[in-house]
């Protein structure tokens, strides 16, 4: 590899003894420095999927081989529909059948699904072993890198079983985004866009001005988008690691989005697509409940559409949407709680009359 | 219920924001004060088993009914062999199918198996909901009440999947021990006895002097045994919540014991029986590795036998024992680590030559 023209950006995540660094740059997979100083152990286990493993597994194995005597691998089927007990068990079974001990380092090589499952396996194997995130999608670089949320899905709801568990390091190699299908690039942009309305009005302006560069995979633009997204998320999570308060604002668009994902069946819509469309709905609800002006919903819809994301939700029926949203983790005592925009760059949790939600669903589905 | 002749003993467990109280006394199940001040929620879920539910479930439900609008129940089959993914899933499925939210309070009503599984379910459902332990066996009152260890078993090893997760409160009603089969009372005494050699020589003297009263289920004797065991465990865990150092001494007898349990198949020996026999082996190894005198092993063997516990292990074969102990969570890089007694009331982690372990196994199995 030639030397990278871009410097390695480090975003430190400060969580006391659970602190770690996010490294962001092209060329990180093959840079020895990316892999130095990880926890010592006799073995490491790389968890990847059938799409990502052929592209990057051997390169990661080569780097890890300098630090660990034994490198095991688990390659899972690709897709959100495999974020389940069976895949989790495959990781646990591999750990046990290779007599992996409580120092074994797990390495998640892939997107958010691989990261979530590997992190959860690391959280519960022998009550906790270290793990490293190597996110290879834009969505996982901007979203899963910060916050320590790990989980699997359940037929009755998304991310219903999981743990808060922090990685030892996140290695976000921007070159891995070159192989990302356009649909997944767009899905990642949904989470980037999210950080604007909830926390940083200037960042939303920047995204609007640089969306074409992002879609063209310009490395400098991607580096800044990943860095700023991680910084904002770290700022939010740092105030509320276990999601008892402000952290919930990161779920802007997610209450509607999760309903779409569960209602359609996992794997039909990408998570980022559902969130993109969910943000259109949440923006619409923010306008209808007040005090955001109608122009805000129109602006969000334009940007989300330009990013290549769906802006019209599936017709599941209002009752089905409401039922799905009532089992959302943010619901309490059966009352749905929405993250709504209160002013550009500021969000809060609100309930809304079912009739108003029905209006939004009517307006935003077809 | 008439007023209890014994005062309610409270053992505070200080773990910063995860602090809680252990209540110890007869008559606690039906005392309104036992159930006051728990986290507010719309619903609670009682998890119990087929043996304990007919005895106590309705009484617990009646008390909880004063505080929670909806009380759900899951009754699992009884036994260590059911501490598995299937039972864990039954709890998770019940939570999801009743649309339980992230404030739902789980109540573990039963022994260590119910406590471990319910605690683990609470740790991972929606990444963590509150739970209350109502231990109904001596073993769970002295052992599971402190430390926050939750887990399920795996065909390849015991407690291999789990989490550190603290309850909101432990309600140890000594009257529930009246219905305990003698074999289970003895199994509980194994963990009580354990606290003597590892941490408190005077407590070992007290147990020897009061063993008959304990076997006769004298409430005052049981109250002190539970209190002192919880205090010692709290003192150890308080120094090392995540088991990176001193906490491992609580596993005195457990490396051999886990090998017996796994080797025989879960459910053949009770956990406390395996630990009792494992302590005989560990005492023997402490003597052979030095510096404990031979009298120590003989004393431990006499006391464990008087408590109604097995002192001779199954003939699994030395190689099988070693193989089983090498996958123990305390093993590192394939080396078995034993908790051995260094002086009466003090324990430490040691490795031992396979040949010496073989001698001990030869001496202690038949």
Could you spell the SSE succession of chain A in H and E letters?
Answer: EEEHEHEHEHEEEHHHHHHHEEH
State the major sheet of chain A. Answer: 7 strands, mixed
Radius of gyration of chain A: 20 Å
Oligomerization state of this entry? Answer: homodimer
Kindly identify the CATH topology of the largest domain in chain A.
Dehydroquinate synthase-like, alpha domain
* Main CATH class of the largest domain in chain A: Mainly Alpha
Instruction: Report the β-strand fraction of chain A as a percent range.
Output: 15-25%
Q: What general outline of chain A do the C-alpha atoms trace?
A: globular
Going by helix content, strand content and strand pairing, the class of chain A is: alpha/beta
In total, the number of domains of chain A comes to 2
Task: Annotate the secondary structure layout.
2 copies of one chain form a homodimer.
Chain A: E1 9-13, E2 20-25, E3 43-49, H1 53-64, E4 70-76, H2 85-97, E5 105-110, H3 112-124, E6 131-135, H4 138-144, E7 149-154, E8 157-164, E9 169-173, H5 182-199, H6 201-215, H7 219-238, H8 254-264, H9 271-289, H10 294-306, H11 318-326, E10 338-343, E11 346-350, H12 354-364
Parallel strand pairs in A: 2-9, 3-4, 3-5, 5-6, 6-9
Antiparallel strand pairs in A: 1-2, 7-8, 10-11
Helix pairs in contact in A: 2-3, 4-5, 4-7, 5-6, 5-7, 5-9, 6-7, 8-9, 8-11, 9-10, 9-12
Brief sketch in words of this structure:
The first copy, chain A, has 366 residues and is an alpha/beta fold. The first copy, chain A, is built from twelve helices and eleven strands.
